[in-house]
Amino acid sequence: MEAVNLLSSNRYTEKQIGYLFISVLVNSNSELIRLINNAIKNDLASRNPTFMGLALHCIANVGSREMAEAFAGEIPKILVAGDTMDSVKQSAALCLLRLYRTSPDLVPMGDWTSRVVHLLNDQHLGVVTAATSLITTLAQKNPEEFKTSVSLAVSRLSRIVTSASTDLQDYTYYFVPAPWLSVKLLRLLQCYPPPEDPAVRGRLTECLETILNKAQEPPKSKKVQHSNAKNAVLFEAISLIIHHDSEPNLLVRACNQLGQFLQHRETNLRYLALESMCTLASSEFSHEAVKTHIETVINALKTERDVSVRQRAVDLLYAMCDRSNAQQIVAEMLNYLETADYSIREEIVLKVAILAEKYAVDYTWYVDTILNLIRIAGDYVSEEVWYRVIQIVINRDDVQGYAAKTVFEALQAPACHENLVKVGGYILGEFGNLIAGDPRSSPLIQFNLLHSKFHLCSVPTRALLLSTYIKFVNLFPEIKTTIQDVLRSDSQLKNADVELQQRAVEYLRLSTIASTDILATVLEEMPPFPERESSILAKLKKKKGPGTVTDLEEIKKERSSDMNGSAEPASVNASVVSTPSPSADLLGLGAAPVTNSAPPPSSSGSLLVDVFSDSASAVAPLAPGSDDNFARFVCKNNGVLFENQLLQIGLKSEFRQNLGRMFIFYGNKTSTQFLNFTPTVICSDDLQSSLNLQTKPVDPTVDGGAQVQQVVNIECVSDFMEAPVLNIQFRYGGTFQNLSVKLPITLNKFFQPTEMSSQDFFQRWKQLSNPKQEVQNIFKAKHPMDAEITKAKIIGFGSALLEEVDPNPANFVGAGIIHTKTTQIGCLLRLEPNLQAQMYRLTLRTSKEAVSQRLCELLSEQF
């Protein structure tokens, strides 16, 4: 209250202390907020610039929704009023920017929007700088309302870049005139396409040329601040040139300027130059100019000490690659792969695989490249890569014989990576007959070579080799008895792994009773795969973060005829979808014989779905830490579910009986818009029958610093074990982002607490004495054994905490009812802590075994 009283003082020091206290310590839900708002309104109306500045600073610092409701209509009037002091205009512009980022729906667009644009012509550069920040943010959401800012921004930029440093003395930083304002104006212009007015367009081109010319001039100071400011303006100008992508001369000049930075002694400049050139490589005007720097980039790959710069060099080689230099670039990337940092090896493998496939003129080169890739970095060659090799070999008759000969020779090495054994087993099983005429690769030699690797491989690879063996029975009848002896051996027929045992039994029986014609029909050559999008690109996109080049192939003007497209997975409206079953028809070919030497469905089904199914490739794997965050929400309903450098996901939930409602908040932590923002709640087939979810769509555009809300209505139809998955896809800075997290909708959310006396509790406890109704778990404590925290977690879990029921006062007992649409399930729980041993014993009894098991699993993870 004393702080509120200080706001009414006419002394600056007292008023300042009052505002400082409120900005830091007063909660927006405080009972005093109305008095505070009245004091702020009085200061805003006072026309005293000092008091107005303090009030505006306080509004911006608090920045709450309540502040936006109270003052969002007043601040624009102050901003555009003719008699407002320059310092107040600056504060008003930045205050309005803060409120817009917090609550964009409460900042009204009106007559002031056209007037605020004219602040770009203000005499005071501080006002122009603050106004530019505000207009840039507003223009990202409402480009049409602020398109008149383009000509004014060009005009102001022209005056800055053509002025001498002495003309803008107050805003010159180490001989660079107004560098912050220049950068902001260039960013504002990136919200729009090139100006249509020839005069404005010509003036903008002159500005950009002047900035590029100044970059060539000798430095006016040796201090690092001068070069930093000068380069900041230069890189932002290059970003605008790339954004417009319409002036060939400027694009080539920008490329040449960046080329000079590739050998600069400053690591940051080398990094930024490589990053910008990655984007330039996508333009039809500058692609050839970028290619002239290939030797410099390759040299950077070999000599650069900073791993992040080397990674950008790999990105640039990938972006500048075309048919004319593909073999050189792939060879250099393979050479680098042998000594590359482990953190980027998988990404390099994916890029090499994509380039080798996309620009392969001679498919024998493609086969050699992928086999070399497996030899150098087999541990980093994902299933998608070797699946793709097999798909291409099967689809191209001209390369099948060469592929069979090459893998046969590669398998003769004493140490082969398991992925090479998989590729060899598959290709020889299909096309081994093409090389069987050579005595050095006779059927028996092929079989013995593959079988020599059998005992060193994992179960999925052994299963694939067994399929190869039965294929050999059809291809090479002369070694049928040898193969049958292997299949008949105890190590196969009595194998501990059920998949291997089943294959051995079935294949042995098939080879014994089937006629030659039946064998030829069942074990015929795999039909060509339908041409689908390559899943290797999708996997590469999942690995990459913002500011990378994995999506550049989508916007390349120079299109080469290739074997597959590279479009991102199609976005879908926010809805509940079903995940494909691993037993689905993966290739759209109808029912395929189980004896084809494809990877075994039981072990690799999900991977095959990921590779060959259009729908499944759109769903990313769970984000790191997703399970830990999920566990924290078992006993609470509100909080932050996920957060990375781009996105924050918050939850607020409420449940009553078998119904619930969840509010999901998506916060954009960056200053750049998220485009095509598509959250999707995914339920498995089993979960869909137990849980009804209705999601409301969200705005596909999320502004920088903004937050959008999605409502999910929930109905529990019957008990369930799994949790839904929330998949979010969007574009950030031209890069496709795809992530998934578990949505904390668990069975205990539909708990209704039930109060019981000690007599009633133990009477009911005895009634639930069937062994199938009780689940017990004894486990080590993961957290400090605090009684109050334990009580809070049991209550948060949903059951009633029953006091003075258990004879041992140290124990905790609870009771409740799980409500579903179809039934109600009573539940009793007892938690017995042992402080000395730091152990717990948790006992749960319900009328349904699966419910007892699930609740026990969920609650055990909390202690």
Automatic annotation (TrEMBL):
Quaternary structure, from the entry: Adaptor protein complex 2 (AP-2) is a heterotetramer composed of two large adaptins (alpha-type subunit AP2A1 or AP2A2 and beta-type subunit AP2B1), a medium adaptin (mu-type subunit AP2M1) and a small adaptin (sigma-type subunit AP2S1).
Main function: Component of the adaptor protein complex 2 (AP-2). Adaptor protein complexes function in protein transport via transport vesicles in different membrane traffic pathways. Adaptor protein complexes are vesicle coat components and appear to be involved in cargo selection and vesicle formation. AP-2 is involved in clathrin-dependent endocytosis in which cargo proteins are incorporated into vesicles surrounded by clathrin (clathrin-coated vesicles, CCVs) which are destined for fusion with the early endosome.
Domain Clathrin adaptor alpha/beta/gamma-adaptin appendage Ig-like subdomain: 631-744
This protein's name: AP-2 complex subunit alpha
Gene Ontology biological process terms, A to Z: clathrin-dependent endocytosis; intracellular protein transport
Region listing for Disordered, in residue ranges: 548-578
Membrane topology recorded in Swiss-Prot or TrEMBL: Peripheral membrane protein
Family: Belongs to the adaptor complexes large subunit family.
Entry keyword annotation includes Protein transport: yes
Taxon lineage: Eukaryota, Metazoa, Chordata, Craniata, Vertebrata
Domain of life: Eukaryota
Subcellular location, principal: membrane
PANTHER family in the record: ADAPTIN, ALPHA/GAMMA/EPSILON (PTHR22780)
GO cellular component terms, semicolon-separated: AP-2 adaptor complex
Single GO MF annotation: clathrin adaptor activity
Gene3D superfamilies, per the entry: 2.60.40.1230, Leucine-rich Repeat Variant, TATA-Binding Protein
The UniProt record lists the keyword Signal: no
Location(s), subcellular: Cell membrane; Membrane, Coated pit
Keyword annotations of the record: Cell membrane, Coated pit, Endocytosis, Membrane, Protein transport, Transport
